[in-house]
Amino acid sequence: RIRKAVEAREPIVVYGDYDVDGVTATALLMRTLERLGAEASFFIPNRFSDGYGLHLDCIRELKETLNPGLLISVDCGVRSLAEVAVSAELGLDWVITDHHALGAELPAACAVVHPHLDGYANPFLAGVGVAFKVAQALLGAAPHPTGADAAFLDGMLKLVAIGTVADVMPLVGENALLVRRGLDSLGQRNGPGLAALLRAAKKEGAIGAQDIAFGLAPRLNAVGRMGGAEDAVRMLLTKDAGEAERLMARVESLNLERRAIQQEVAERLPAPSAAAFDLVLDAAAHKGVIGIVAGHRMRASGRPAGVCTVIDGVAHCSLRAPEGYDLGELLVLAQPFILGGGGHRAAA
Prior knowledge:
Layout: H1 2-7, E1 11-15, H2 20-35, E2 39-43, H3 56-65, E3 70-74, H4 81-89, E4 93-97, E5 111-113, H5 127-138, H6 148-166, H7 173-186, H8 192-200, H9 209-226, H10 230-237, H11 241-268, E6 278-281, H12 290-301, E7 305-311, E8 314-320, H13 327-334
Parallel strand pairs: 1-2, 1-3, 3-4, 4-5, 6-7
Antiparallel strand pairs: 7-8
Helix pairs in contact: 2-5, 2-6, 2-10, 5-6, 6-7, 6-9, 8-11, 9-11, 10-11
């Protein structure tokens, strides 16, 4: 379906997510479609006005403004049955690529690409890892890339490494290989956007997973946490050094703002108790930072943690869990008591 859209010059929209995994997956698929000569653009929902995943209002607006023949989701969409069904009525096709917990049914898309389907050997692929698999298939690079495609895909592994580490996916098996090769590639020559990001994080030479987790990822994450994440994707995609620097200055400014707000929220909350699940609520907490604060509390206590804020009378909670827990399973148990939710083992 994607090849048909490329050949027919059908407009394609990559529908992403505002966290690092979603941003890197969006950039990776955009780069791949560009390489194939596709007429492609991207859309990232706003954390505050849209929330996570596929939204009918956003889909209808994309139909009005871009009139795509095909939409490709990255890092979202596997539970969006109603949204995909309504899209079909609007004449829009979907290819869903995701890694979040599966529901009882799959959406009626042209295809659903997910590491928990068909007994795939690596169930721990991040959203960007799934997007990389689509890129491999589109370039005819499975099992092995040839010629210039080999160098291109090696470059894309930089994005796979950043998104996989940022999304706290287990670095075992295939993930360990993808991240290792991506880190090796990051230590070499980079495009303007990644080069600006590495300079801002004061990371030069050999890059490790910790450099991503505590240097690169928080900066990319800050854009989506404080508003729209489009600038993070634009920075990763730009081939202009001047534009990369301008976008990086904005990213760094948002990151400093995020850190100040995060510190303020963390200081207001009580210390983790001895409870099996550390769940706290601060009605005034900024929605964009509660996930990071939950992560800090989880690491401090060694137990699952959740931090909640209140918006229009509804509690919005961000959860983090250490190895050995599965937040996806816990959310299934909680379904009778919550309005909605989703995620994976480590974050939800």
